[in-house]
Amino acid sequence: MDLHFGDSKPTDEERAAVDALLGPPESSWEGADRSDADLRWARGGREARDRRDLLLPGLHAVNDRVGWISEGALDYLCRRLTVPPAEAYGVATFYAMFSLRPRPATVLHVCTDLACTAAGASELCADVETRLAPESGVHVERSPCLGLCERAPAALVIRAGETARPAIEDEALSGPKGGSGGTAPGDGNGKGRRGRETMRCTAVCAPATPDTAIQTATAPETAPPEPPPTTAVPQAGHPALTLLHRIGTTDPTDLDDYRANGGYTALRRAFALGPAAVIREVTDSGLLGRGGAAFPTGRKWQATASQPDHPHYLVCNADESEPGTFKDRVLMEGDPFALVEAMTIAAYATGAHKGYLYLRGEYPRATARMEHAITQARARGLLGDDILGQGYAFDMEIRRGAGAYICGEETALFNSIEGYRGEPRTKPPFPVEKGLFGKPTAENNVETLINVLPVLTMGAQAYAAIGTERSTGPKLFCVSGSVARPGVYELPFGATLGELLHLAGVHGKLRAVLLGGAAGGFVRPDELDIPLTFEGTRAAGTTLGSGVVMAFDDTVPLPRLLLRIARFFRDESCGQCVPCRVGTVRQEEALHRIVDRTGAGAATDITLLREVGRAMRDASICGLGQTAWNAVESAIDRLGAYE
Amino acid sequence: MTVTPLGIPRRLLEFTLDGEPVRAPEGSTILDACRAAGKDIPTLCEGDTLTPKNACRVCVVEVEGSRTLVPACSRKAEPGMEVRTGTERARHSRKVVLELLASSVDLSTTPRATEWIEEYEAEPDRFGPDAARLGEEPRIDNDLYVRDYDKCILCYKCVDACGDQWQNTFAISVAGRGFDTRIAVEHDAPLTDSACVYCGNCIEVCPTGALSFKSEFDMRAAGTWDESGQSETTTVCAYCGVGCNLTLHVQDNEIVKVTSPHDNPVTHGNLCIKGRFGYQHVQNRD
After folding, report:
1. Under an 8 A CB cutoff, do B100 and A3 touch?
2. Are A442 and A315 spatial neighbours (Cβ–Cβ below 8 Å)?
3. Mapped to the 3 state alphabet, what secondary structure does A500-515 carry?
4. Would you say the ipTM is above 0.85?
5. Which of A70, A342, A601, B65 has its CA at a distance of 20 to 30 angstroms from the CA of residue A637?
6. Cβ-based contacts of A81 with chain B (< 8 Å)
7. Residue A164 pLDDT grade (very low, low, confident, very high; cuts 50, 70, 90)
8. Is residue B234 a contact partner of residue B247, using CB atoms and an 8 Å limit?
């Protein structure tokens, strides 16, 4: 590989940001000043190229420090990692959180997705945009769902700056400060900051008003702390909870408290059983993947474990970006050690010694909590070379996403971790055979992994007794929209939609319920007896998806919601295959044309939508394109939109 | 004499293609089997010298038991598979894919596009006059070739040819996302500021004419490009000892384009800047 670099040089600040992640460069081959020694040896080949997976963390490092990625910074990062600049440019332009043009250090992401739109996000956004003039130093971005639907309308402030503020430990919890997890290693070689003294800082403002959003954006370091994760769990403290029982009762920053509340009993049981028996337990429990595809977890683990190729990898998909979904965020913020434990068990069962937690870039608090939990677990020998003295080695690493819904697709996520564009791969081969770095990989959603803990502590039989025969165990539902008590609810599979909405307390005149998020489907208010199981929703011609239940009253016109869903898919399509890349655009255009039309006036465009939708469903590479028409179709067929 | 290595004989596997039993060598794709059986499946992003990317989805067929349609170009044939190529479902997707492409991209120089649009009764105009198009202007930043991304269907073939599949130059990449995705060098700079070595192997694989010789681009603009009046002569490049085959495309006694046979064991269709673009001395008549 004979790389060509331009003449752009990084600023001292950009160089320091990259060096803080990668260490100082060893030679001019990597971007240091040229010395005589460089003439005598070359560094290259596989060893130099094998760090490609640090490209995404490197882009984050620059973006976190400066707020955007300049030509010089990208070139320097490419030199350090032996990555062709054109490819790195392709990767950087793929993610919504990165900018390759200069922009202010502070970016205010205002969510304009479904739940927030229903809560008045359009007005909020317009107001904020007019009041924050260009010279205010704040860049306003309209954002897809930020996963804060229980506190809609939501806004997230990200300010670039020198070092990360230590892990955001709020709520007056007395746990130890987890400062070390928040910053990258390195000697902070940050000379020559060119006078900017700002610290990197993130703040969530939800529910947001124009005043609070602007206040947070202009001074994020003084923003009031986020309410504790308990506020997102209306059932908190209820004795019947299995998955959420520690949220609100256990200090999420304290490993001892976690252990005092049942933590690490499942891992001990796993070690007592051995990997094969753990897989058998999980298989017998009937646990199905909670990320949306409902694949049997035991079968996935078995298929990974039995692959002769090594090493095996474990990947936890925490890139929760489906509009209306926030359960994984609440789990990671409220019970982070449980995920560390569950990932350890999954890795042990599948023969992996390295795990990756791919965490959504828009979840600063979850990232901080998980970093803290991993550091604590490592310090106490619960991650590392000899876990619990059992001679089993496992460690995990967090990789932050950078604003791409498609990276929640399992193979796109692998590409993203590996430092490529987050485009889905062709299947077969499936991840269990060729996954991360081309090796056998088990990839599970956060909620799926959390379910492994009760499977092991209560035993497969007792777990399988919860729920229905074909959908076993407890399930988390993300209820938002026009309800009195939005949040994450835990119910055994088999509860009806009506029972769930009753718990959350619908207000207003219910017009429609969206199940499964943007990739899911609408149901009518007279269909509240649909059992919330995988088979029950399938029989009713809809989907459970990731557990989104969004209630809409008649104050928001349905065509506007459909248009927002269509825009979401258009924005989030990776652009790889034609049906999705162009189809999502044509879908949005058609919905735009008929936004105020009904009956015969909309008929031609509805036919068009059906034809394009059918081709997207049949011929797209991955689930994004295949489901991009689901919600619109259900609104037309079930709700009679445009009639 | 050209020696083509035959390799170890491959086992044949049997499956059903449109109701007929067919046998295909192990490892071949559904598309290989279709072509062997004389079936004409449209393809755009598939290239005979490249690993299929299956991005265009115009070759989709129905496979029994598969929830979605599968791309014939990349799905390997399996024993016992039941493949149907001409079902209403497969034809519908091909039709819509052609409509989506033709309504957003200039397919005027894509071989066979018009024929397929007619065959599948595609109506690209149905999306209305306001349907979003790529809206790109041709980029003329060097004397050798032109990048007209208004004709780009994003098949990834140029990127693969420039990257690890052939040239290992990595001058271009897919940049952006969704409908705004474009092929670009870093920071969307002109080619002259990039790592491009002007081998022209991207032109060789481009299925739509988005990448073309400057000579071809200029002649098309002037209306003098006449493919039927061109002769093709395959010869050996005189520059070095590798012995690459060149196919000289000649119109009115002028070389207008140089390609290389894709089945040539030396080049597989690839050349370097000298073989591809260094032909002016041949026609220097002064």
Report:
1. no
2. yes
3. HHHHHCECCCEEEEEE
4. yes
5. B65
6. none
7. low
8. yes
Residue-level pLDDT at A40: 78
Tell me which chain A residues have a C-beta less than 8 angstroms from the C-beta of B58: 578
Look at B130 and A589 and tell me if their CB atoms are within 8 Å: yes
Chain A residues within 8 A of B188 when measuring between CB atoms: 89
Task: Name the CA dihedral angle for A328, A333, A339, A341, rounded to a multiple of 10 degrees.
Answer: -170
- The answer to whether the Cβ–Cβ distance between B181 and A583 falls below 8 Å is no
pLDDT of residue B82: 97
User: Among all residues of chain A, which has the CA nearest to that of B156?
Assistant: A576
Chain B closest CA to A94's CA: distance in Å?
A: 5
CB-CB neighbors (< 8 A) of A96 in chain B: 177
Question: How sure is the predictor about A350, in pLDDT bands with cuts at 50, 70 and 90?
Answer: very high
Distance of alpha carbon B190 from its chain centroid, rounded? 23
Query: Which among A1, A93, A619 is the nearest to B170, CB-wise?
Result: A1
Between chains, do A589 and B128 touch, taking CB under 8 Å as contact? yes
Tell me the mean pLDDT in the region A56-63. 98
pLDDT of residue A196 exceeding 90, the answer is no
Answer whether B173 sits within 8 Å of A578, measured CB to CB: no
| B-interface mutation test, from A1, A576, A593, A605, most B Cβ less than 10 A away | A576
Are A404 and B177 in contact (CB < 8 Å)? Answer: yes
The secondary element (H helix, E strand) that includes residue A285 is: helix A275-285
Tell how many helices (H) and how many strands (E) occur in chain A. 26, 13
User: Which residue among B100, B170, B189 places its CB closest to the CB of A579?
Assistant: B100
In degrees, to the nearest 5, what angle opens at C-alpha A9 toward C-alphas A4 and A14? 115
Contacts of B171 in chain A (CB under 8 A): 4, 84, 86
Residue A443 has pLDDT above 80, yes or no: yes
Name which of B30, B54, B66, B96 to mutate to probe chain A: the one with the most chain A Cβ atoms within 10 A of its Cβ. B96
Q: Where are the alpha helices (DSSP H) in B23-172?
A: 30-36, 88-104, 113-119, 157-162
Residue contact B127–A584, C-beta within 8 A:
no
At A477 the pLDDT is 97
Kindly give the confidence (pLDDT) of every residue in chain B, 286 residues in length, as a single tens digit, with 9 standing for 90 and above.
Answer: 566 677 777 899 999 999 999 999 999 999 999 999 999 999 999 999 999 999 999 999 999 999 999 999 999 999 999 999 999 999 999 999 999 999 999 999 999 999 999 999 999 999 999 999 999 999 999 999 999 999 999 999 999 999 999 999 999 999 999 999 999 999 999 999 999 999 999 999 999 999 999 999 999 999 999 999 999 999 999 999 999 999 999 999 999 999 999 999 999 999 999 999 999 998 888 7
Walk me through the domains of chain A, giving residue ranges and CATH numbers.
12-92 (no CATH), 106-183+196-225 (3.40.30), 255-464 (3.40.50.11540), 474-553 (3.10.20.600), 558-637 (1.20.1440.230)
Fold assignment, B145-283: N-terminal domain of TfIIb (2.20.25)
Residues of B in contact with A621 (CB under 8 A): 54-55, 57
Instruction: Report the DSSP beta bridge partners of residue A549.
Output: A479, A515
Q: What distance in Å separates the CA atoms of residue A597 and residue A611, rounded to the nearest whole number?
A: 19
Name the closest residue on chain B to residue A572, using Cα atoms: B178
- Within 8 A of B133 by CB-CB distance, chain A residues are none
Mean pLDDT on A267-287: 97
Are B169 and B159 in contact by the 8 Å Cβ rule? The answer is: no
B23 contacts B36 by C-beta, under 8 angstroms: no
pLDDT tens, position by position, B143-194: 999 999 999 999 999 999 999 999 999 999 999 999 999 999 999 999 999 9
How many CB atoms are closer than 10 A to CB A307? 18
Q: What is the CATH number of domain B1-133?
A: 3.10.20.740
pTM summary value: 0.94
B1-133 and B145-283 in the same fold: no
